[in-house]
From TrEMBL:
InterPro entries: TPR-like_helical_dom_sf. The lineage of its organism: Bacteria, Bacillati, Actinomycetota, Actinomycetes, Kitasatosporales. This is Transcriptional regulator. It comes from Kitasatospora acidiphila. It comes from the Bacteria.
Amino acid sequence: MADLARIRNEELARILHQLAWSPERLAREVNLVLPPGLAISQTAPYKWRDRGMVPRSPHDQAVCEVLSRAVGIAVTYEQLWGRMGSHRGAKALSARLLTDPWTADTAQIALHEAGLQVAPVRLTDLFRGDELARAAQHWSAPPPPLTGGSGALPVTADQLNDLQASCVGKRRLGRACGGGLVLESARAELAMVGKLLELGGYAEDEPLGRALYGAAGRLARLVGWAGADLGQEAAAQRAYVAALRAAHVAGEPQLAVSVVGSLAVQLTYYGAGRGLDPAQLLGSALAAAGATLAPQQRARQLGRLALAHGRNGDREAAEATADQAWTVLPRDAARAELAGLVGCAYLFLDDHKRARPLLTDAVAGLTAARARALLLVRLADSYRRTGDTGRAAAAADQARGLAAGMQSGLVARVLREFDGPRTGGGMQDS
């Protein structure tokens, strides 16, 4: 931290006075939540309070978390550090996440935040209304200038290939074993890519630099997916925003649509957004993407859109969108994933006669254990609701066998809820 003109941090001083904490007490509490080797000195909080200095990451976010827990309400980054000025320490996105300029710099900030083990506590991390739908006009626009990339750390195509392969492997592992198995390693790798973007030398090779942002966006999407699988909705949405911003810098609107589709599935089942309609959100994203999607990509997103329409009870829109998805899907493409999405849409509409054959085909055709377990529970619920208790028990037992040892909060949740009142349709892997 640079030695700057003294500006007392009155907000930090007020909170410490309210808690009757000394700066030394704050240092001790912060050190309890920091990873090993990142402990701060007992005198550091004096500099924050009395000289207006802003700690670097992850200490800045750790202070927010510690004070939020102690006070009992969210203490935000902007509240605590924003008035000190960006020249006094680490930068952060505004609390609403989506309103900052869509630049390479803000993409790096979002990626950095998504990769933190200690994340800020913000009540606004759950999106309002059509904020994400409106964001489509940003991520679908031409990519911004590729600023930065003049660091001394070399970045090569081989390194990029290694990062891309690692992400694919983690994603495959997560689909088999659950998000809990890959979340921390994906976050750590995202933080590593963030360092490459910050310190790397790729300014002379713009395609390589933009591809590096694409790799970061896919890792952030994985972090969001894994977080959602563990029920960490706000953290997942923060990661999805980072993925959208990285996709924009990379010039990959098809990646952005995939991110929006993942979030739409989360919202379809658990409503982790205030006033946000997942069908409207994904419909806006598909319109913004235009013809950039390959046929199989478009079919997948249309299947997710049919699912959202089914959740809304809009039979006509769900059926029309499902028909469109089947028409778009190439004849030689695998059909199991789309069958699962459309089958779950029919479950939301209580059309068990049309849902069950599709779900059965999906379970037979999918290889990822997590998706199969989720669909089997939905299939079991369908059988039970129509009086076929024998097949319901068999499907549920098969799901439990697949779920044994799986690190998926979502799979555990739907299995726990199986004997309770039914609250929704089937769940397809996002």
